[in-house]
Structures are given as C-alpha cells and as structure tokens.
Amino acid sequence: MTAATILLLLLLSVPAVLACAYLLVLTLLSASLPAPACRARTLCFDVIVPAHNEAAGIVRTVASVLALDWPADRFRLLVVADNCSDSTAEVARAAGATVLVRNDLARRGKGYALEHAFTASAADASADAVLVIDADSEVSANLLVACAARLEAGAAAVQVHNGVLNALAAWRTRLITIAQGSFHIVRSRARARLGVSAGIRGNGWCVTHELLRRVPFHSYSLAEDLEYGVALGLAGVRVHYAGEALANAEMLTRATAAGSQRRRWERGRFALIRTQALPLLRAGLTRPSAVCLDLACDLLVLPLSYVVLNVLALAGLALLWQWLGHPAAAWLALSLACAASLALYVLRGWWLSGVGWRGLLDLAAAPVFLVWKLAVMLKPGGGSSWVRTERERP
Predict the structure, then answer these.
(1) What is the pLDDT of residue 260?
(2) How far is Cα 261 from Cα 228, in angstroms, rounded to an integer?
(3) Residue 17: inside a domain
(4) What pLDDT does 38 receive?
(5) Whether residue 81 is found in the same domain as residue 208
(6) Cα→Cα distances 344→32, 189, 292, 361, 371, Å
(7) Alpha carbon 239 to chain centroid, angstroms
(8) pTM for the full model?
(9) Which H/E stretch holds residue 304?
(10) Does 245 reside within a domain?
(11) C-beta of residue 389 within 8 angstroms of C-beta of residue 261
C-alpha cells in the first residue's frame, strides 16, 4: 500500500469515525426523558411569529397559538409583518394577533424581524420571556406549559421539538420527518441527558428577557437560529430541551421549492462552521466547557448525506485497494462499523418519528434524495435576504 493511498484512507477515515462515533453515542443515550411539571401559571410570554408575505396561511398559525393552554392574560401573540407586499398584517390582525409592521429594505431577513420584535416586547415590559414560532406552523397546546416548567426550574433558554406538520404527505416529507427524528429527537434527548445544550433549532425556541439583556440577539445570517445558539453557548448558557411540546412546520413535497429552501439552510450552516467552529472548540478545551465542546461537535458533524458520502468513499477506496491485491481488511471493517453506526442512528430516528412502516419503506428512496440534495447544493445562488418559501397549501 503506497503512502499516498494510506494518507487518503486516513483523510477519509478520521472525519467518518469521529462523526459516526458521536452519532452512535447520542443514539445510545436517546431514551425518553421525564417532563418536569409546571408548578404555577404566572409567567408572561410574548409568542412571536416572524412573517414575510404569509397572508395565505397565517390564520392557521394564529389560531393554533391562540388556542394554547395558558391563561389568556399571560401571553400575547405578536406577528411581525416584515417587508410584506401582501395583506399579512391585515389578515393576522383580523385573526386576533397583535401585529408589528416592519418595512426596512436595507435590513432584510428573519434575524432583523426577530430583533425588532424582541425590542418591542422588551419596551412593553410585560413579558418574562419570548417564544419564536415560524409562520407556517401549528403548535401543541402544552407549548407554554412545557417552556414554563423549565424556566421555573432555572433554565433561561428552551427548545421544543421542531417537527413536521405534513409528515405523511409524500415520501419526501416522510424522509424529512425521519431525519428530524434523528437530528432533533435523538440528538436533543441525548444532549439533555449529558447536561449540554440542545441548541436553537429555528422553530419553537424560548428565551427570557433577562437572557436577551445579557446576550443580545444580533444574529442576521441565513442560520440565525444556530448563530444565536452558538452565542448562548459561548456565553455559558445551556438551551434546555422540551420534547413533549411541538412546533410543527409544513415541509415541501415538490423538489423545486424544497431545493431552494434546503440550499439556504445548509449554506447558512456551512458559513457558520467556517466562523464559529474554532471559537467553540477553543472555548470547549480551554475553559473547559462541555456545552461549547458539544456545540462544536454538533456543527462539525455535517448533515447526514455528507457523512454517508464520506463513509461510502472510504468503503469504495478500501474495496478498490483490496481488489487490486493489497490488504485492506482493517479499512473495510472500519467503514462497515461506521455504516452500522449510521444505520442505528437513522433507524432510531425512524422509530421516534412516528411515520410507521411506510416510512421505513421510504428509506429505500434515500439514495434518490441524496442525489437530489447534492444537485441542489451545487447550484449557484442563495443570498442572505429573506426569500419566502413557496407554500403548497394554506
């Protein structure tokens, strides 16, 4: 075996082994967690829904939030109609929401809309905490109960389960639901069990105003949620997981619209890896901080499709070298161990996703999804402004 081949196998095996080992540990620690009880319903919340041209579906989200199981005089729904060219503000107001209209073409994006809402909420000084819900979502009735239980116990930041509203609509949404089961439920349960941060996942996250004063929200990237979660981690703040509460968003079934959405999400994540992975690693190792170290691992473990490609490349090179008559059994065994770890991680996500046996059959379409995703990521485009994703139903 040549030195060049050994070097290439090492370059492929190190990230594969580290990523798969991390995911295997989280899988093994993903048993269900007890939900703490909410002792008193005295906390006041501002539920914030940032919306850009969401007139067609905002009524559903408003109705879902207004039906929350919490005293009506202790929470308020704020819809931020941000740079809208439709009737989002009027429709949301008629449905019962308090509406903040924001028009600023120079500062466009969800992060700016959230900052505007947080500032308005703080100025009113009536809420103890804010909770962010996407404009295409429905929430479970226990949303504020679950968040309040953690806040009462001393938490300053909470993330509920970020799920899929139309999980059974198509094979694509079932695969996304399985992926959410792995990425959100498996990882979040394990991280809660380890006492580290669940991170901010974009939809269904809650922070106190005291925390916003201590760690101001200045996150404007395509991954503003992950960015603020990193800022919290660097400030020593752990985000607690409330898996019994749901914030379910609609996912797209059509490849064209879904591709644009996926490209924005992942390019935002890659940009954050470039800027924040090293600071997190440095903080994790020098303080030391388990929260920062785990957040670094969470960032550096790429989306599952890339890890799968890494393992396939390792296995393929090992097979090629074996076929050429050189010993590569150890490398093959290593690639098989990585593949087995990934399989356990995905199957655990499937089990927790609730999509049933049909979802398990849909995993056969995963290679098609992988090819589609790679094609999407190779396309140019994906700016930093807030582009409303096409909705498929109101």
Answers:
(1) 64
(2) 20
(3) yes
(4) 94
(5) yes
(6) 17, 16, 26, 16, 22
(7) 13
(8) 0.90
(9) helix 304-323
(10) yes
(11) yes
- pLDDT at residue 6, as a whole number: 82
Residue 32 phi, psi dihedral angles, 5° rounding: -65, 155
Residue 223 in any domain: the answer is yes
Residue 71 — left, alpha, or beta (φ > 0 → left; ψ -120 to 50 → alpha)? beta
The torsion angles phi and psi of 65, rounded to 5 degrees, stand at: -70, -40
Please indicate, yes or no, whether residues 91 and 175 belong to a single structural domain of this protein: yes
* DSSP reduced 3-state for 53: coil
Q: Given phi > 0 = left and psi -120 to 50 = alpha, else beta, which region is 325? A: left
Shared domain for 266 and 309, answered yes or no, is no
Answer yes or no: do 252 and 325 share one domain. Answer: no
- The per-residue DSSP string of 79-147 comes to EEEES-SSSHHHHHHHHT-EEEEE--TTS-SHHHHHHHHHHHHHHHT--SEEEE--TTEEE-TTHHHHH
pLDDT of residue 394: 46
Give the chain's domain count: 2
- Residue 235 included in any domain: yes
Q: Are residues 347 and 245 in the same domain?
A: no
Q: Any idea what DSSP says for residue 156?
A: S
For residue 261, give Cα distances in angstroms to 82, 99, 276. 19, 26, 23
Among 275, 310, 334, the domain-final residue is 275
Name residues of the chain where pLDDT drops below 50. Answer: 394
Q: How many CA atoms lie within 13 A of 241 on its CB side?
A: 24
**CA–CA distance, 89 with 83 (Å, rounded to integer):** 10
CA distance 194 to 188: 10
Segments forming the whole domain that contains residue 7: 3-30+301-378
Is there a single domain that holds both residue 261 and residue 327? no
DSSP-derived pairing of the beta strands 129-132 and 205-208? antiparallel
The answer to whether the CB of 243 falls within 8 A of the CB of 265 is no
Same domain, residue pair 107 and 53: yes
Rounded CA-CA distance 289/161 in Å is: 25
Torsion of CA 389, 146, 199, 29, to 10 degrees: -120
What CATH number corresponds to the domain at position 58? 3.90.550.10
Same domain, 224 and 358: no
- What's the pLDDT score for residue 221? 87
